[in-house]
């Protein structure tokens, strides 16, 4: 068996903390499937003292995510900070330039800078994976990259934003107003307190740009 795949995670919000918990909780299963252990060995976030519900004691701490991205102690850099600017942009670019494979859920970054980032990954001969940026647990990126690689794709249909899907479904089926449905979506946790990114189509547009680049 090969040595462990050493992972560095930048961004310890809800998704980052859940990832660390998942990797630790499914260690044996992941090792069996991958043929080697996967270990989160280093992390970066804005606040070190915040309680995130996961044990970070054995992990190397970086206050600067770009420094983490170039650390020789990791093989894979996972970017979960979000946003299309620095530090996410510079950290991802530096990780790729340093020969690290990158995993990100950052659709905003890829929608704006995806061509350059993909070129950096190709030049360094490392992986750039972003399945979680588009369809949650649905493997649409893998499907387009591999399963449908020999097909000519003319159209893509799908529900790309859960908030909009909930609101429009309630409006159509129950005759409720947009304001009523939005308020209920927020109460249920489907929509953010500021729903602009979802309801004005920015989230969907970014996902479509990534899907179109693959198709």
Layout of SSEs?
Blueprint: E1 5-10, H1 14-25, H2 27-34, E2 38-44, E3 60-62, H3 65-69, E4 76-79, H4 88-97, E5 101-104, H5 107-124, E6 128-129, H6 140-147, H7 162-174, H8 178-187, H9 196-199, H10 202-214
Percent of residues in β-strands: 5-15%
Radius of gyration: 19 Å
Summed up, the domain count is 2
- Secondary-structure-based class equals alpha/beta
- What is the average of the pLDDT values? 91
> Total strand count, please?
6
Q: What would the principal axes of the Cα set say about the shape? A: globular
Euclidean distance between termini CA atoms: 36 Å
Uncertain stretches: none
What strand order characterises the main sheet?
A: 3-2-1-4-5-6
What share of the residues lie within helices? 40-55%
CATH C-level class of the largest domain: Alpha Beta
Given the structure, what is the number of helices?
Answer: 10
List SSEs in N-to-C order: EHHEEHEHEHEHHHHH
Q: Write out the CATH superfamily name of the largest domain.
A: NAD(P)-binding Rossmann-like Domain
Quaternary structure classification? single chain
Question: CATH fold name of the largest domain, please?
Answer: Rossmann fold
Structure in words:
There is one protein chain. With 215 residues, this protein is of the alpha/beta class. It has 2 domains: 5-133, Rossmann fold; 139-214, 2-Layer Sandwich (Dihydrodipicolinate Reductase, domain 2), CATH 3.30.360. It contains 10 helices and 6 strands; from the N terminus they run E-H-H-E-E-H-E-H-E-H-E-H-H-H-H-H. It has helices spanning 14-25, 27-34, 65-69, 88-97, 107-124, 140-147, 162-174, 178-187, 196-199, 202-214; strands spanning 5-10, 38-44, 60-62, 76-79, 101-104, 128-129. Helix 4 (88-97) links the parallel strand 4 and strand 5 (101-104). Helix 5 packs parallel to helix 10 (202-214). The radius of gyration is 19 Å and the shape is globular. The mean pLDDT is 91.
